[in-house]
Amino acid sequence: LNLIRGPFPSKHTDQHHLVTIPRLDVMESLNGSAIDPTIALTILATGVVALFFYFRSATNSSNSKNKNGVDRLEQARQNSSIDVEAIASECESSGKPWKDPSFGHDSYPGNSIGQLELRDGERGKPLILGKEGVSWQPPHKFGPTSRPMGVRGDGLPTWLYSDNDGDGIASAAESMEVDDILQGSVGDCYFLAALSAVVQHHPDLADDLIDETFEEYGIYGV
């Protein structure tokens, strides 16, 4: 059970498309040219998603006593080396959300954004994320409201789920669409679009992957 900094998602506003059509620049890279980082990321994201579903399918087919999402989350908590409840208790006492001490939201050249260098476009000049103004912003900093707009099944506000179609059922799949992803200089739009596409076709996957029990303290389990 890993902890990630909340509110969620808080890393980038950059977002993307799942590309499955062979591209000329990929073929050029295979012929000896240096491959563009965004193309490499596309291939990696697609491979990770494919492997995930392969192993998930293999596990389900070999286990006749499949656990539901709640059981899997509870098992993850038990196997975690981190005492999540103790951390949540500390956050409640201090009145401050949890922050990852090894991946803080400090400004350039902090250890979360640091001096990661990307290229702005296939032929653009290299840029250093933090130095060029790319910053880490939580949802309440860039969203239309400062409070979560979604409502969880237990009635608590959430950044993760929404009921866009008004059927009374809040779902992670309704919180994102592939068309929401915009190309930006961060260069991870392909990966975000791939995740969004997966969630659109397998909404239960997103609901089961994230443990938002302690969301109010900025803690999420993955």
UniProtKB/TrEMBL annotation:
Transmembrane segments: 34-55
Coiled-coil stretches: none
Ranges where the Calpain catalytic domain occurs: 102-222
Sorted UniProt keywords: Hydrolase, Membrane, Protease, Thiol protease, Transmembrane, Transmembrane helix
Active site: C189
InterPro entries membership: Calpain_cysteine_protease (IPR022684), Papain-like_cys_pep_sf (IPR038765), Pept_cys_AS (IPR000169), Peptidase_C2_calpain_cat (IPR001300)
Gene Ontology BP annotations: proteolysis
Source superkingdom: Eukaryota
UniProt-recorded Gene Ontology molecular function terms: calcium-dependent cysteine-type endopeptidase activity
UniProt family annotation: Belongs to the peptidase C2 family.
Protein name per Swiss-Prot or TrEMBL: Calpain catalytic domain-containing protein
